[in-house]
Amino acid sequence: MGDLISFESRRVGKIEVSEAEVVTFEPLPGFPNRSRFVIMEHAEAAEMAWLVSLEDPDLAFVVAAPWTFFPNYDPPLEREHLAALGIEKREEVELLSIVTLSGKSIFLNLAAPLVINVTNRRGIQVVGEDPRYTTRAAIPTLDAAASAASIRTASKAVASTPAP
Amino acid sequence: MLVLTRRHGESVRIGQHIRVTVVASTGAQVRIAIEAPEEIGIFREEIFEQVASANVEAASRGNAMVGPIRVVRGHAKNRMGGSE
After folding, report:
1. Partner-chain contact B72 A99, CB within 8 Å
2. pTM for the full model?
3. Cα atoms found within 13 Å of the Cα of residue A126, Cβ hemisphere only
4. Contact A13/B69, CB-based, under 8 Å?
5. CB contact (8 A) between residue B71 and residue A64
6. Which chain A residue has the Cα nearest residue B57?
7. What's the pLDDT score for residue A114?
8. β-pairing, A13-18 with A4-9?
9. Which of A59, A123, A142, B17 has the most Cβ atoms closer than 10 angstroms to its Cβ?
10. How confident is the model at residue A14 (pLDDT cuts 50, 70, 90)?
């Protein structure tokens, strides 16, 4: 798996990952100089994960698979996004939404999902203009949304991501 | 900043691979055509700014969820599908 990288994130603590686990993003809007991230499991919320910067100890996003909460979500993905990432097969696509926690409310950014090619571990944030989706889509509560049924739907929806 | 005057049908080249052409202008509106490689993102400024501020907000919250973490090996998709 290559050399281990050790990084002290002030958001999630000490991280040790191998180079092969790093995801290289086209810098996300708002963070022009940050491209190396790693996805970490969230120990206290199974349907959430952390996207942790390996370049900025103060930068980490909570992310989630949008279909867990929005089973009918139709991501604003275009052929050019898949091409830009070198995605050739739908199995290579991983799609995540950035989560905003605001008081007791939880929002998913459905307008601008993160798309990752799991083969070459490159990612982009799709800046979508689909009027159906907002950067702040509220989810009811964490518990209600984490049902097994919605997770099953999530797997199905992932499989229907448009082929390049 | 470089400011240029162009007429209908005239273009500007940005580097070797990007061409911006004025295709129409009526009153306060200008229509431009942009030709660029696929990997270059092209966004309306206000949409880009909206996403940027959503990202900044998302990154500034979530301290309540700080907790122990585990490294994900394999696809998060599978993990989130409950096949761990």
Report:
1. no
2. 0.78
3. 30
4. yes
5. no
6. A100
7. 97
8. antiparallel
9. A123
10. confident
What's B51's DSSP letter? H
The alpha carbons of chain A give a radius of gyration, in whole angstroms, of: 15
Residue A137: what residue type? A
pLDDT digits (tens, 9 = 90+) for B13-41: 999 999 999 999 999 999 999 999 887 88
The backbone torsions φ and ψ at residue A151, rounded to the nearest 5 degrees and listed phi first, read -70, -40
Which among A109, A113, A104, A105 has a CA at the least distance from the CA of A137? A109
Strand A23-25 to strand A122-125: parallel, antiparallel, or no bridges (unpaired)? parallel
Two structure tokens written together for B51: 């996403």
Q: Report how far residue A22's alpha carbon sits from residue A120's, in angstroms, rounded to the nearest whole number.
A: 10
Comparing C-alpha atoms, which of B55, B57, B76, B46 is closest to residue A96? Answer: B76
What ipTM was predicted for this assembly? 0.81
Rounded distance between C-alpha atoms, residue B10 and residue B23, angstroms:
8
Which residue of chain A comes nearest to B80, CA vs CA?
A47
The closest of A30, A19, A32 to A112, measured between CA atoms, is: A30
Who contacts A20 (Cβ-Cβ below 8 Å, separation ≥6)? A1, A2, A121
CB distance A102 to B61 below 8 Å: yes
Tell me the β-bridge partners of A25: A123
